[in-house]
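Tutorial handout. Part one gives the primary structure; part two gives the three-dimensional structure as tokens.
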Amino acid sequence: MNDDQKRELESYLELTEGDPPPVFVGRAEVLDDIARATKQVWKGTGSDKHGAAKTTRIIQGAPGAGKSSIVNEIRQNSKRLYTEIVGKAPMVVALDSGKIHGPANILKPLAEKINPLKAQEFMARITKNTSGEAGFGLGLFRFARKKETGIEHQAPDANWDTFGAWVEQYGGFDRPIVLAIDEAQRLDYDRQHPLAKLLQSLHDGCGLPIALVLAGLSDTEYSARKMDLNRIPPIQKHNIGCFPDCETREFMAISCVHFGIDVAGYEDEIYRLAEPCDGWPRHLNIVLKAFAREALRTGGDLGKAEWEGIRDEIKSGTDGYYGHQYSDEMEISINLTARVMAELDFCHSRAKIQDLMEELHEADPRKYRLPAGIDADSFFIHLVHQGALHKESVDRFVCPIPSFRTYLLDRGGILENPTRISGAVSSNDSSSPD
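Part two.
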């Protein structure tokens, strides 16, 4: 480990949970499919008509599954999306949903990426006011107020036609664009909202070489449907979760090489640290940080490492992660939450899980209580957001981290076993916890 690697390792240990990991492994099928989307929307240099309908991609998973890492990877290394048919790596514009409130919040960063010198001109064009209005606001983003003339305000041309015409004015597109929106489950708009209309037009094929990628929690697909982004084929929806064992090992090995940690003779010990993680990306980050702290303490001499201390730190980190995911609402409804976890092997569609919640609550509302003001549908979504439920495939929800399921069963006083607790729910349910 040289001085630069040591400083980088020290910086890594200061990163927050929202920062990407130091190395990227796996997810090849997701990257390949995004690259395929760029081919679908690109019709060749000089073409005056690009785009294709229904090319939107969805990447969804529980908190800590690595969705943001995928978005960061394609933003940092767009060459991963290179295809011979296109002949160039695509341009990637990655946005966070929290900064998107309307069409201008998407069109502005796209304009700045394509032509930073002329982006201000484009924004002035789509925010222009009619002569019968007075503007107020900050900078280019001014809000129109109608003067006492009776003239109605003309809506700004914040749409793909205006954007495409502006790009063509300065030479046109020379490659496809990937528009990636992270935390896309927050785009909770109905189909008539201006932002939904903008994304609908892109999804339906607006004639521009832009591929839309929505990354978020496991209900991102529902948010897309609410905005009327429909008929997305299953092969374009990626439900990501745990790494297989080979990629878990790859992550630890490449990370050690990246930081210059000599692991010769200690490979098996390092892999044993990662075994309890179930291949969960966020947990692997916890493992790597615990191991890295010890490597720094020993100056890279793993012969002096206190392996039991590393394991204790890892357990503390994963328990803290579960404590963070275990919300007040889940604590209030822990008996209900635990029963859902216990029945997942037999009751795994959204409809059946919600039916189970309603039946348990109706049978014994004190024991199987729902949080105040929350119905079964809302509590289901809450469990998705907290990482207790994740859509694995059509009509199949699972707990994405086996150890989290064990944690929730334990909190509810249920022993984990593959046998169904009860065949039916009744008012005198004797198989429930407590």
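Part three, for discussion. Confidence is low (pLDDT under 50) at residues 129-155, 421-434. The longest strand covers residues 210-216.
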